[in-house]
Write a structure and sequence with these properties.
Layout lengths: L6 E6 L2 E6 L10 H15 L5 E6 L3 E3 L4 H5 L3 H20 L3 E6 L2 E3 L1 H8 L2 E5 L3 E3 L13 H8 L1 H10 L3 E2 H7 L4 E3 L4 H12 L4 H14 L4 H15 L3 H11 L9
Parallel strand pairs: 2-3, 3-5, 4-6, 5-7, 6-8, 7-10
Antiparallel strand pairs: 1-2, 8-9
Helix pairs in contact: 1-3, 4-5, 5-6, 9-10
Length: 257
């Protein structure tokens, strides 16, 4: 794995662990951090890893955009920064691996966006989540995009308009994360969920993930058209043929990847 300025990447038991590691800036999504994230995720996407744990080091998981970058930029510079951030979020959806957020502390604004964007998320009970722009001067417009798609309109409006922090249990109840666990059980819970989510054919999982994101939030007719075409085409893939044959033959599958 390459060396990075703002994060670390490590491989463990077939999975990659990407850790935000700029605690003195509260792991803010500066241009440097976003470029490192894009590079790291691209590198992992081309690896043999089946899953990714997105973690952070320090007292804050991620505080969102770095306001030092924001104050130094004009509107064109902000557009470039937001496009860079959007590219990272879209990359999380397009990489073939299952991406699980491991949230140990506060995730605010674009940091909350990052958690909502991950395929799965587990948080320690001491974690918190907020879209604080609603009580400040710069509303959380882009962070609200994936949060809305996770928790629905009324809860999104509450988070976005009040700017208040919700705790991990509330975040799980609302659907922002998959579950909240005692802090001491966070690593075990992340590993258990990732293990279950990465079972089966990696190629089939990658195609399934892309198709799910393609049809989510589309009208039902469009969603069925997208899902039906992908399902018909993938039925002829080596993974599908082996999965069906092994089921009928009552044997353990031997995935072709």
């Amino acid at each position: 794995m390459a060396a990075y300025e703002h994060l670390t990447v490590a491989a463990r038991e077939g999975c990659a662990r990407v850790t935000l590691d700029h605690p003195e800036r509260r792991n803010a999504l500066s241009r440097g951090m976003l470029r490192d994230l894009h590079k790291a995720l691209t590198e992992v996407a081309d690896s043999s890893a089946t899953g990714v744990v997105l973690a952070a080091h320090g007292p804050v998981f991620c505080s969102g955009h770095d306001f030092a970058d924001v104050l130094a930029a004009d509107s064109d510079g902000i557009r470039e920064l937001l496009e860079l951030c959007t590219g990272v979020m879209q990359l999380i959806h397009s990489v073939p691996q299952v991406v699980v957020a491991r949230v140990h502390a506060l995730a605010t604004a674009a940091g909350c966006q990052l958690v909502a964007t991950c395929d799965l998320a587990v948080a320690g009970e001491s974690a918190g989540f907020a879209l604080p722009g609603g009580r400040g001067g710069w509303f959380c417009h882009t962070p609200a995009v994936p949060v809305a798609r996770s928790i629905g309109r009324k809860r999104l409006m509450e988070m976005a308009l009040t700017g208040d922090v919700i705790d991990a249990r509330t975040a799980a109840d609302w659907g922002l994360i998959n579950r909240a666990v005692p802090d001491g059980e966070l690593d075990a819970a992340v590993e258990e969920l990732l293990l279950r989510a990465t079972r089966g054919s990696p190629a089939s999982k990658a195609l399934g993930k892309r198709a799910l994101y393609a049809q989510l939030d589309r009208p039902e007719t469009d969603a069925y058209e997208i899902a039906g075409e992908v399902m018909a085409a993938s039925s002829q893939s080596p993974a599908a043929r082996e999965g069906i044959a092994s089921f009928l033959g009552k044997r353990t599958p031997e995935w072709p990847e």
